[in-house]
């Protein structure tokens, strides 16, 4: 995704903003991953997936928690059918 924004769109400002948002989500995940809601998709919900939405961009990070570890599955655009990719 970052590569697409840099190479295809050639938008360094958008890339920087995206990375800042991602850094914020990673910090919040480290603090308490349970602060993010469970997935609204029934299948992903049944598997324990959660979603962290970017605050200023139409992206989300999909992850699951296993004991004391957070596994990030991917970062997806809100319009993407990410459920089919997991």
Describe what you observe in this structure.
This protein is α+β, with helices and mostly antiparallel strands and 86 residues long. The chain has one domain (2-85): YaeB-like fold (2-Layer Sandwich). 37% of the residues lie in helices and 26% in strands. The protein is built from three helices and three strands; from the N terminus they run αααβββ. The chain has helices at 2-8, 12-31, 42-46; strands at 49-53, 59-66, 69-77. It has a three-stranded antiparallel sheet with strand order 1-2-3. A hairpin with a 2-residue loop joins β2 (59-66) and β3 (69-77). The longest helix is centred in the N-terminal third of the chain and has 20 residues, at 12-31. The model has no long low-confidence stretch (mean pLDDT 88).
Secondary-structure blueprint of this entry?
Layout: H1 2-8, H2 12-31, H3 42-46, E1 49-53, E2 59-66, E3 69-77
Antiparallel strand pairs: 1-2, 2-3
Provide a brief overview of the structure:
The protein has 86 residues and is an alpha+beta fold. It has helices at residues 2-8, 12-31, 42-46; strands spanning 49-53, 59-66, 69-77.
CATH class annotation = Alpha Beta
| Secondary structure category | alpha+beta
Instruction: Write down the overall geometry.
Output: globular
Run of helices and strands: HHHEEE
What's the gyration radius in Å? 13 Å
Number of domains as seen in the coordinates: 1
- The CATH topology corresponds to YaeB-like fold
Record field, number of beta strands: 3
- Work out the strand percent: 25-35%
Order of strands, widest sheet? 1-2-3
The main pleated sheet reads as:
3 strands, antiparallel
Mean pLDDT, as a whole number?
88
**Measured distance between first and last alpha carbons:** 16 Å
The helix tally amounts to 3
Low-confidence stretches: none
- At CATH level 2, the architecture is 2-Layer Sandwich
Percent in helix? 25-40%
């Amino acid at each position: 995704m970052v590569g697409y924004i840099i190479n295809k769109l050639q938008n360094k400002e958008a890339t920087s903003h995206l990375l800042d948002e991602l850094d914020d989500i990673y910090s919040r995940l480290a603090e308490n991953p349970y602060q993010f809601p469970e997935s609204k998709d029934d299948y992903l919900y049944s598997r324990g997936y959660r979603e962290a939405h970017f605050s200023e961009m139409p992206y989300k990070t999909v992850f699951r928690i296993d004991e004391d570890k957070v596994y990030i599955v991917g970062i997806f655009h809100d319009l993407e059918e990410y459920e089919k990719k997991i």
